Amino acid sequence: MTLPVKVGGGALTFATISGLSGVGSAYMSDKKVVNNTQQGTAISKIIEDKFDYILLSTKDDEDSSYWNANWGSYKRDNKDKDPKEDAFKLKGWIEGDKESLNLVDQLKKKCSELSDSIVYDGGKALYDNLTKYCARSITIKDQAEKEKLKLLSVEGTTGGGDWDAWTRKSGTRNSLLVDLETLGVVQKDNAYKIIERCKAVITIDKKDPNYSNIFKAYEKVCTR
Asked: Which of 88, 188, 194, 195: disulfide with 110, CB 3.0–4.6 Å?
């Protein structure tokens, strides 16, 4: 079943849209959102609301490491596909060996274009492709920023001006024992280790099966 989407004033199928070209915006999440049953929902809005992924920036070299990683995944997943048979039907896709092929710019352009799509049924197929090739997973840091947590400083080895707060965390470890262990802090560790772990876990993302527990522990241990 083809995925019905709407771009501009006309209704198109996903297969049709994947052949179009468009101008990428600085951030794909900055979209004009239409969100009601009759008109459908912007796929970028669905991604934003689910908050499992963040669409990558298409501006200059921003998010370049993520784009390179996603391109590697795209190339690997579509390595046996001929031109116009790959997931996004990228311009420049070739037959045969694709080891040296680099279409990162084409991938960014297509991701920007498709993220503008309006879907009417949740857009699962499009959602899956966009989050796999055009986005990155939400991290502890992302969620902490969204929830506006008041974090203790992890500057240097002593937590900047929050050293006293860190030592209090260490001094009351019995009430935080499970949370500290979740963050990788054991009984013998001191405040320095707590700071180190609060600094380290912010890159853990939602693909980690223990993400939810780690975030809850981070919220208790690493905040004011």
From this structure: 88
